[in-house]
Design a protein that fits this description.
Length: 329
Amino acid sequence: MSDTSVAVAETLSTQKQHRQNIIVKFNLLFIFAALVVVASLVAPQFLTSQNLANLLQQSSLTGIVAIGMTLVILTAGIDLSVGSVAALAGMLVAIFIGMGIAWPVALLLAVLAGAVSGGIVGSLSAYLMLPAFMVTLAALQSVRGLTYLTTNGTPTTSEIPMGLRFLGAGSVGPIPTVGIIFIVVAIVAGVVLNKTTYGEYIYAVGSNKDAARLSGLPVKKILVSVYVISGSLAAFAGILLTARLTIGQPTANQGLELDAIAAVVLGGTSLFGGKGSIFGTFVAVLLLSVLRNLFNLMGLSSFFQMLVTGLILVAALILNHVLDRRGSR
């Protein structure tokens, strides 16, 4: 074989590998785009500005929580307490406002409560070497119980100030404010993960804790920090829900942790840590929201939605796994 033929063969092989890498990296984005096309054909009202605004608003709270969950799972951890933390923070901000505390201070105090909760479960997991699954499962129960105890299980109604209501239910033009917040949080988290030393530490700890420790990284502090961030974002999401509903509801956000974990894993973040991205989580949150929105527009029952959503999740995960293995060859 001539040198020219060898060069051509190598070029073709390189181009093929490049195409495979693009498919592996952006496969979820391709699936999302295809789903949007299908949704627009099946339900013409899907692409209306009102429906798209509702879709973004509905997906944003889960998305904010999922971003914090991404950081935790990147370190090979899990946080099952986010739904309960969100409910507690939503109740607390309503209680604080009812006590006459200015809403920015009430918001900060409620977020601080989420950060403290995250710091406690993170410390128990990192310093006492307790399984994160069990620690956060216990927090799921105990924090939810504390939420009920604050008002004996009854909703808390307060006159939510306009400034806080704007965060949860307002809009900037046609774009919901909460959607803008979701996008900003995603961008900031993406920059932190990809452009800072702290982000590199998170990936290093998730890839191999022992190697990270031997390299001099403060592994335990990093582990605690991601739970603090997760708890803070969960609390913030709960506050935004209260701002939208104008009521603190102790039963709110049940199952939020499952939605967040599903989005993170669907977005390509490995449950074993060390691999994943904020971008993948962001697209996965929107994909799941579009899917549910399409089902609602088609008038499908909630039971059928649960079945189909679960099957699609499994299929997407299998496809992601196959493409990932091909891309790594």
